[in-house]
Structures are given as C-alpha cells and as structure tokens.
Amino acid sequence: MESLALRLTGVSIVRDGVTLLADVDWTVAADDRWVVIGPNGSGKTTLLAIAGARLHPSRGSVEILGERLGASDWRAVRARVGFVSGALVRSLRPSLAAIDVVVTAKFGALEPWWHTYTDADRDRARSLLELTGVADLADRTFAVLSEGERQQVLLARLLMADPGLLLLDEPFAGLDLGARERLLARLSALALDRATPPIVLVTHHVEEIPPGSTHALVLAGGHVVASGPIDASLTAEAIGTAFGLSVALGRDGDRWWCRARL
Length: 262
What we know:
262 residues; Rossmann fold; alpha/beta; 2 domains; 9 helices; 29% strand
C-alpha cells in the first residue's frame, strides 16, 4: 500500500461562476481514518468526488494512490477506489440479489452479466456480507432491504475489490437509531483494523463519527475551516464557524456529541 493515499494541492472547483471548493490542500495517509463534516452546500460531496477520481478540479493537482491526474489512466485509478454514495444506490437495479450487488464490485460493474464470476468470487462476497452482519440477506433482492440493511450490503461491496482507499458519502442518511448504531459498529471495527485501507467518511453530524476515526476536515462554503488530527481540528469553534451556530461539543467515551447553545 502507498504511504500516501491521497494528495490534493490548491484544488478548486468552479461551476457556472460558483465556487464549490476553494484552494483545498489535503493529504490522506495510508493508516488515516478521516471524517469530513460540514453543512449542506459546503462542498463535502464535491470533495469526495475528486478524491474518488470522479470529478476533475478547475485548478490544482490531485494524486490518488500514487497516480497523478493528467498523467495516468483515471478509469484505472477509479477502479482502485471503493466508493459508496446515494448515486450508487440509485444506479443499482432493485431486483438484484444482495450477493450480486457485492460480487459485481470486483469489476466495478452494476450488472452481473457484464462479466464472469467464479465460485471463489461468490464465496468472497458471502464472507464480506458475513463480515458486515448481513450474511442471511445474500439472496434477497436489494429492493426489499431496509435502508440500514442496504448500507451494510454496500459496505460489503465497498470491500469486494480490495480497494486502496475507501470513500463513504453520508452512509447514515435515512437510517433509524438501530440501523445507525449497527452501521457505526461495523465501520468502527473496520477503522480499528490496521489491515483496512484509509477511510474517508462524509457526514453532517458528529454523532455519526465512528470510534477509531483519526482525522477531521471541517468545510464551510467550499473552504477548509479546520483539518488535521481529530482532537485538534474537531472543535466547538470549528463546528460553530461551519454551521453558523454557537455550539457545545464533547465526547462521551469514544463517541462525539454536539448541541447548539441557545
């Protein structure tokens, strides 16, 4: 594994005269577990799209897993990055079985008939579904799964192709308390496992930060408010600046909490 998974230098995105990201410098090392937090419209999803080789910046340089934008086959780079987002969920055929959702990630595909899969591939997919806690759902169609079950299936898909970088865009969106806590437990186990590649997770809420997270990037209006080791960068001042509120921020054991000061 490369010692540096991601390097963004002076990265900006401008669309129709609107700046979505402004002069972002950011590095993700091989053993980092990052959380990216900020309000709607702060540039979180745009940043993740750049990190996943799915969007080119207007300015700046991007290096992903040792490959530099403009000097490498970006399609090949994209295949080495595990990426889960709401767009992926909407792209999957609802009648696919959960195991097919997972196994197709080997080739970055959305349909099982585009490639040939071996018994070993399917065995690996089942073992990953077991790892994420939903082995009993392998043969159920994606459409009948709850939002929480879908996210656990997508987590198994994320790991199927042995990616060098894991990117999760708001995986807790729409989950109830039980589903959120189960997914948090799975993500925390991954974060604490040294064999897991670097992780970047986007969220709106500090309560959704998995234990084991090491770094935080706080965004507001396309600008970096704070970035670095989580204890130094995830502060009440940074969160308050990003969300335009006076807040109280703290930890209860290994879990974060945040409340507005009214």
